[in-house]
Amino acid sequence: MAMAFKMAMTGMWVTEECKNSFMEMKWMKVHRYIVFKFDEGLKQLTVDKVGGPAEGYDDLAAALPEDDCRYAVFDFDFVTVDNCRKSKIFFIAWAPSASRIRAKMLYATSKDGLRRALEGIHYEVQATDPTEMGFDVIKDRLK
């Protein structure tokens, strides 16, 4: 039986698939990003989409629905001013204004539990429209 991490506030579970996909992204660089969604019927958080290592931030932004909430993690690679290659993981809480109130509440109350389950997140971005999570916002966080 698969192990899962329960998010106390909502009674939702983070599946092993979610944690394993995150570890694959973090350590093996198999994914550039992962989009998570709640399956309310099963009461668990599942992997909605993954982006391959060649995909970029625009691909992640395009993978988020215009009318429903999601969580996403993005592995941002960059080169520092002293020419060192670095990687930082961003957590994105996506809650567009067109999404249902119930979905917004569910995602808002579950965010901290998911962040605890996914160790190694460096920065968090909360967005209700694409401009709040633009690539410039991500780059500015690194300063």
UniProtKB/TrEMBL annotation:
Domain ADF-H, first and last residues per copy: 11-143
Protein's UniProt keywords contain Plastid: no
CDD domains xrefs: ADF_cofilin_like (cd11286)
Organism domain of life: Eukaryota
Molecular function as annotated in GO: actin binding
Keywords: Actin-binding
GO process terms (BP): actin filament organization
Record keyword Cell inner membrane present: no
Stated family: Belongs to the actin-binding proteins ADF family.
The name this protein goes by in its record: Actin-depolymerizing factor 5
Originating species: Salvia divinorum (Maria pastora)
